[in-house]
Batch of 3 targets.
Target 1
Amino acid sequence: MYNERVIKEFSAPQNTGVIKHANAVGRVGNAACGDIMKIFMKINDDGIIEDVSFQTFGCAAAIATSSVATAMVKGKTIDEALKITNAQVIEELGGLPAQKLHCSVLAEEAIKAAINDYLTDYKNKDK
């Protein structure tokens, strides 16, 4: 059902855990399948994502997409990260079974939710 890359990312995911003093946190979930993703980011004053991590409760595909998505945004600007799509996450993984494509959507949504948190909450605290 899963290709080697998905199995690798599930078995040894990148960027797991919580970032202390994260200034961007995005949480998304899908009640239908039970997958919940939480992405933490440390974004510097220049809008660069210096550090990123995740906690995901879900299936192998949910964990694999979280792992790959965090690796894809690390070191990117906010604008670059916002352009990452679920299709790019799927491509990076080398594909997903049709019934697991929703996991890549959750990963994209979690990235956007974290950046939105940064832009609406963290950036406005100084004002």
Target 2
Amino acid sequence: MTQTTLNVRMDANLKKQFDDLCADFGMTPSTAVNIFVKTLVRERRIPFEISAPHDPFYSETNMRRLREAVAQLDAGKGVQHDLLEDVQ
């Protein structure tokens, strides 16, 4: 089977951590990357979950509070202000 080279750029500290972890596993970084790529191709998916960081603005608690605040404003309670932009 013909071999080829894959070049990947990453932070030097991350690379060192990766190299050290691979050594702890008793494998080279090349072997680890090949395991990842073979699994990706075989399963046709990323072999682990990828998710976005949780944004607390959209938490159920905050969304409930925002709905309550809107309901109060709609009921005539509270004072509605125009958006003031900070001009510097």
Target 3
Amino acid sequence: MTLEPLLQLPGVAEAVERARIACEELRWHEAYRRRWREVRAEAGLRATRESASLEGARVPLSVVRSLATAGGSDHEPVAAGALRATVVVEELMPALGARGAAALPPFGQLLARLHAAATGGWLPVEHVGRLRTDLPPADLTGLGPAPSGEALAARVDLLAETVTSSQVPALVVASVVHAELLTLRPFRAGNGVVARAMARLLATTRGLDPTGSVIESWSLNPYLGAAAGFATGTPAGVAAWIQACSTAAVEGAARARSVADGVRAGALPGD
């Protein structure tokens, strides 16, 4: 799979540039000079809340914060799983200002690790961290049929090769991986949390968001609609998805700036 032709789709190059500018401007906020770890950690809590919300686990930020400090996964298992996936992602993110490319685990191993973090404790153990074989996905059912067994494994391998070999801008790589994981739904459940966590990690490690603090927020119906458009494989559907991801990144950079302002001032923005 080659991603270079996607840059020629209508609106994609402009979308890439919009996201690049928004994230680059965020990078120079004063809070990132010495307190970038605080901003990243706070952004991670908010990204967790947004991801959990798309799974139907709508919890206030205070609950996510309590999960981070005191556990409570029995009461909020999906949100707790999304938080564990966030922890995995942030452990793999390079320090702000680090030189050289980030060394990530092989793609398949990383997928399994994220899935185990996201679903351990609420998904039957035989499905945790393991690609589906004969069962269909139990989530994201509005995105059409998904491959299984050998066909699924081959698609995941192809996606892994694409991530390794692609030199296109980070927005394109992260967007395609995000949507492909939603389309393939490689696991029995928990696919959305894994897809969003992987996209956030790739956006950071590939340089779009070196701060690791962009907070994407999606509304469920437009999100699924754009993902369904990508799943059709049509140029218009793929371009619209990448543009939607760009918009989410631009708006997410603005949310991150608000958090950075709060960290600098000692008064974080509310829910």
